[in-house]
Amino acid sequence: MNKTLSAFFLSLFFVSTTVVAQKPKVWIYTDMSDNTIPGNNHMKTVNDPDDISGMAGYLLMANRFDTKGIVVTSTHRSEHKNSGNQADWANDFFGKAYKKDVVNLNKNFGGYPKNIEFIQSCIKESAEKYNSSTVYNSLEKYKTVALLKDEVEKSTEITNVLCWGSLTEPAILVNYCIANQRFDLLKKLRFIAHWTNSSLHQGTPADPAKVANCNEDRSACEFLKEQALNGSIAFYECGAIGQHGIVSGSPKGLEYYNQFKKSNLGKIFSEGKFVQDAVDHSDAATYWVLLGNWGVSLKDIASNGTNLPEVEKKNEEQFFKFSKSIHEELLRRSKAAEN
C-alpha cells in the first residue's frame, strides 16, 4: 500500500473513532442561586457561591459532555420562596457569557452546543424535603424530576446525574421508579455526588453523613445510600476530594486567576467564589471524575454509595497532584474563549 493511500485510511480511522466516541450524558442538580441575594451563610449569601465557579468551569468544558439539563436552586432555603425566578437569573448570568465565548471556543476546540439553558427547581419555592414515609407514585408536583425521568426514558444510554447539593430531587425520582416498578429507568441512571459523606472532613468516622449536603436533607441522603448499598442504583460518592484535592492543590494568588478574566466564563469562574487565595469550585470533582483522565475516575470510587476513608484519602491525594493540570486546562480554554 502506498503512503498516500495509507494516510487516507488512517484519516478515516480517526474520523470514525471521533464519530463513534460518545459524550457522557449529564444532568446537574445544583443549589446555586444569584449571589447578590443576601443570606446567613458564611459568605453572607443564601447559597454558597462555590457552585457558580463550578458551573463556569463546567461550561468551559461543555464540549466534553452531552448536557441534558441543569436544575438550579434545588435547595431548602426559605429565602427562596420569593427570591425571583432563578432560571431567569442563570440564563442571563451564564447564558450571555456562554454565548459570547462559545464562538471562539468552537473555533479553537469545537463540539460546544450553541447555548445551554437552565431550569428552576420544583422545590425552590416550597423548600420541600424528601419524606421517607411517602410513596411518590406521581411526579405531577415535581416538574424538574419529571423532566429528568422523561430524558432517561427516551435515551438508551446512561444519564449521569451530578449532585452538587441536596439529594431531595434524586431521591424522589428513585422512589417514583421503585413505586412504579420502573427498574428499567434505574438501570440507565448513574448518580455522582459531591460531599454527601466523609469520615475525614466535616463528618466523622462515627457519623460520616454529618456534612452540609447530607444535613440539608438527611432522609433523602439515607434513602439513596440504602438503595445504592442494596444494588438498586449506581451511586458514586466523591466525598470531599473536590475541596481537599482540586481546590487545596490549586495554584494560588490573584496574579494567576486574573489571567482568566479576559474571557466571560473565565471571569465568572475566577470571581464566583475566590477565597483563601484561590477559586473554590469543589463540586467540579463530579465532572472531572466522569471525564476520568485527570487523576481520579469512576473506577476509583465505589458504585454502591460507600466512601471508605482510605479510598477518599487516596483520591484526594490524586486530585491534589492533578490540580495544577486541571487549572491549566481551564485556563487554556478560558484564553481560547477571549474575544
UniProtKB/TrEMBL annotation:
One of its GO terms (molecular function) is hydrolase activity, hydrolyzing N-glycosyl compounds. Pfam families: Sde182_NH-like. It comes from the Bacteria. Residues 1-21 form the signal peptide. The keyword Acetylation does not apply. Keywords: Signal. InterPro entries: Ribo_hydro-like, Sde182_NH-like. Residues 47-168 form the Cellulose-binding Sde182 nucleoside hydrolase-like domain. This is Cellulose-binding Sde182 nucleoside hydrolase-like domain-containing protein. It comes from Flavobacterium flevense. The lineage of its organism: Bacteria, Pseudomonadati, Bacteroidota, Flavobacteriia, Flavobacteriales.
